[in-house]
Amino acid sequence: xxxxxxxxxxxxxxxxLKIDWSLAGITPWTRRAAALLEADFLTQYRLGSFPxxxxxxxxxxxxxxxxxxxxxxxxxxxxKPSDDRMxxxxxxxxxxxxxKSRLQTAKQxxxxxxxxxxxxxxxxxxxxSDESEGDEPDENRKFFIKVLxxxxxxxxxxxxDVDQLISFGPEGLPRxxxxxxxxxxxxxxxxxxxxxxxxxHLVDPKWISRQNVAxxxxxxxKSS
Length: 224
Description:
With 224 residues, the protein is mainly alpha-helical. It is built from six helices and three strands.
């Protein structure tokens, strides 16, 4: 019996194949459906339906890829809206924490007052966001940093200096006593817009040149 008690209690039929999307994980029905798809694919291959395919896949390969796809698709379909809300909430909390940590560190180590002022001017909206990978606690996650395309390159230089102080202190020794938190650049840029309140010297002029400035001016003059 396949998935006893469900509509899939019978056996999958290749002529009207259905996938048990409503059931989590890889069920007996899923495995049988994948096997049927592979058998049908190999039959079509022998009939010449895939002339650009030089050799037939090894036994089990098509079924394995099918199962992998179905499993991933099920996880997406069964993801609760509340999961996305919690992810966004955690992300915003990390950005807020990052802003406060940078500002506090710059003040603690008596960095250039201009840097402190620039952090305050950037605000939370001027901090890069991130996406976490995996389900481990924050200390053991990999974070992909989504950069702000409108932020001036000069900002990245002193932001790096501040972040180094946060991570290693003035002695250059790691601050974290446990866990591993990997942060690396993401190929995806942040879509957070540039606020009109951001001073012009913190905005990349090349980015401004690509915008419709007449319709929406960016930045405000640097205060003297």
